[in-house]
Specification:
The protein is of the alpha+beta class. The protein has four helices and six strands. The chain has one domain: Aspartate Aminotransferase, domain 1 (Alpha-Beta Complex), CATH 3.90.1150. It has a six-stranded antiparallel β-sheet with strand order 1-2-3-4-6-5. The longest helix is centred in the last third of the chain and has 17 residues. The relative contact order is 0.19.
Length: 117
Amino acid sequence: MNISQIQKFCASLPHALGERKWQIDHVYTIGAKMFAVVFTDSNGATHVSFKVDDDLFLQYADRPGFIPAPYLARAKWVQVKDLKQIGDAELKTLIQRSYRLVTAKLTKKLRTDLGLN
C-alpha cells in the first residue's frame, strides 16, 4: 500500500478523523484517541504506527521491518518501517485491530454516542 491508500483506509473506519499534526504526521483518531499515525520521512519512505495487543507487542517489535513506535512503545504501539515486509491485507487487519483496541478504551457513553456499542 502507498501512503494515500493507507490514509484512505484509516479515514474509512467508522467515525475516524484524520488530521495533520507535528508538521509531517497524519494522525487518525476515534473519539479523540489515536489509533494510527502515517508519515513519509525525508528519504521518501512511508511509516505506519499503530497499537497492538499487549501480549503481541514483543512479537511485532522484533519482526523484520517493524520497531517499537517512538514515543508510543510504552503504550504497546509498533511502527512499520518497511512496508515491503507486510502485505496489504495484513496491514489493514492490524490497523483495524488498533482501531478496535482504542475504541474499547473509550467511555461507554462516548461509544454509545458514536453508535459503536
